[in-house]
UniProtKB/TrEMBL annotation:
Residues 48-216 form the 3-keto-alpha-glucoside-1,2-lyase/3-keto-2-hydroxy-glucal hydratase domain. It comes from the Bacteria. The lineage of its organism: Bacteria, Pseudomonadati, Pseudomonadota, Alphaproteobacteria, Hyphomicrobiales. This is 3-keto-alpha-glucoside-1,2-lyase/3-keto-2-hydroxy-glucal hydratase domain-containing protein. It comes from Bradyrhizobium agreste. Residues 1-33 form the signal peptide.
Length: 228
């Protein structure tokens, strides 16, 4: 049975929101974007407005922590537990076409060292995720349906597994996905990597964050928006 922690939203405890108008998104259209930097929450607490859980089994541990290297000081969201796939879902979001982007640092992990972003999530067992892996030095996009993860083929290429690219541990990186209809465009550290086509989850859903196994990962400046 999955252990899940849903934290109600409270104005004084929730992560700070920065509203910005983002024009000319890579896949077209305009969007209002929100950025969460976790700086208005107390270190050692769970962020408000999130469902902190997992896909599979284990004991994930998501918490707001002080981090001197954070892109937006002083705090980050840290995952330091161990589970099949630790998942943090922003409970009050519902986006069909838009984007999600996050800055992350892969700190440690002997089995895995991953950071991912989630979109169109129905729950912790059904969502799209793109993740960067510092042990494998690659970026891969998957669909997770009823708790089963499957990698998706890249447009214009038969076979293969994601895209090889350096993902150094101990450094901050930026991972982004723009999604419209069945088309998903992945960008890593400002460089477009690949696109994927898939129709499995066509409806609006929640956005969130993801890691794998024993990954210890820091997240900051989570930005997301819906294309208008």
């Amino acid at each position: 049975m999955r252990a899940a922690l849903t934290v109600p939203s409270r104005p004084l405890a929730r992560a700070s929101l920065v509203l910005a108008l983002v024009l000319a998104l890579p896949m077209g259209g305009n969007a209002m974007a929100e950025t969460l930097n976790f700086d208005n929450a107390s270190a050692g607490t769970a962020p408000a407005g999130w469902t902190l859980t997992m896909t599979g089994k284990g004991e994930p541990k998501w918490s707001v922590e002080a981090e001197p290297t954070a892109p937006s000081k002083p705090n980050v969201l840290k995952q330091s537990g161990r589970a099949t796939f630790p998942v943090a879902i922003k409970s009050d979001t519902s986006i069909k076409d838009g984007f999600v982007e996050v800055k992350f640092k892969a700190v440690s992990g002997s089995e895995d060292r991953a950071a991912g972003i989630i979109w169109r999530a129905k729950d912790a067992d059904n969502y799209y995720v793109v993740r960067a892996n510092a042990l494998e030095d690659n970026v891969v996009l998957y669909k997770t349906i009823k708790g089963v993860r499957s990698s998706l083929e890249i447009v214009g290429r038969k076979g293969g597994y994601g895209v090889k690219t350096p993902v150094p541990s101990g450094q901050w990186h930026a991972l982004r996905c723009d999604f419209a209809g069945s088309r998903f465009k992945v960008t890593f550290d400002g460089k477009p990597l690949f696109e994927v086509e898939d129709t499995t989850i066509p409806d609006a859903g929640m956005i969130g964050l993801w890691t794998k196994a024993d990954s210890v990962t820091l997240f900051d400046d989570l930005t997301y928006g819906e294309t208008r």
